Amino acid sequence: MTASTPDISLSASLICCDLCNIEAELRNLESAGVDYLHVDLIDGHFSPSLPMGVEVVQQARKKTALPFDVHLMVENNEFFIEEMLTVGVQRVCFHYESARHVDRLLCLIRDGGAKAGVALMPTTPFSVLEYCVDRLDFVLLMLINPGYAGRKGENQVPYALRRVADCRRFLAERGLDIPIEVDGRVAFGNIPDLIAAGATDLVAGSSSAFHKGGTLAENIARMRALIAQAGP
Fold first, then answer.
1. Which of 35, 40, 69, 201 is catalytic?
2. Residue-level pLDDT at 230
3. β-pairing verdict for 91-95 and 180-183
4. CA 67, CA 37: separation in Å to the nearest integer?
5. Domain containing 83: what range?
6. CA 194 to CA 186: how far, in whole Å?
7. Which residue in 24, 38, 68, 175 has the most C-beta neighbors within 10 A?
8. Domain presence at residue 4
């Protein structure tokens, strides 16, 4: 993170990389100065796509010192959490909608030495977090319906800013000031507004870090400038 933006993290999406040239892509991400490598693990059931498996994450872990920010979109959460803890990741979140034992999974992640979070689909109410907020290190909000990275026609939900602001309010009312990560069409045009609403962790994908209009380094620099513009 830059000195001017100490509270906002950029997590670059692994599935937007050229996975046939993963080591070169990781070097570029390191040079560009991203804070995390965002790892979407999808099982083809919870979400229809299946972009990569555990083996790709294992190989990526060997190639970079970047901290890994894992977002599970799976049905068998316990299996994938254990696999990711074995790989050696820094943050893991799973979807409330696919979890039978939320408290146990949060404890499993924390006991494994990683930060634990819960991810929520666009219409899931925050009330589901009521009895587990004390175990949360962060919350991830999906601002699109899960599907395929960069797919045309998949727009950010129209209530995205209200969603982020309501989450920040929900946490503040319970005395919590933990990160809110936002995932889905985080674009140059909405970054200041997302931050103003309460987002602190931005998943950078095809609409920002990997935008075709610039190089990775140029796009990350542009994101940093927008973050600085948003102010504290």
1. 40
2. 84
3. unpaired
4. 6
5. 9-230
6. 8
7. 38
8. no
Q: Is residue 1 part of a domain?
A: no
Total domains in the fold of the chain: 1
> What is residue 223's predicted lDDT score, i.e. its pLDDT?
97
- SS3 labels along 116-134: EEEEECCCCCHHHHCCCHH
CATH number of the structural domain spanning residue 201: 3.20.20.70
43 as an active site residue: the answer is no
Any idea which residue has 């609403």 for tokens?
197
Give residue 87's pLDDT: 97
User: Is 201 a residue of the active site?
Assistant: no
Whether 3 maps to a domain, the answer reads no
Say if 55 falls within a structural domain.
yes
pLDDT score, position 4: 35
Cα–Cα nearest to 114, from 73, 85, 71:
85
Tell me which of 35, 43, 69, 183 is the catalytic residue: 183
Q: Which residues of the chain, if any, have pLDDT below 50?
A: 1-6
| Residues 46, 79: Cα–Cα separation, whole Å | 14
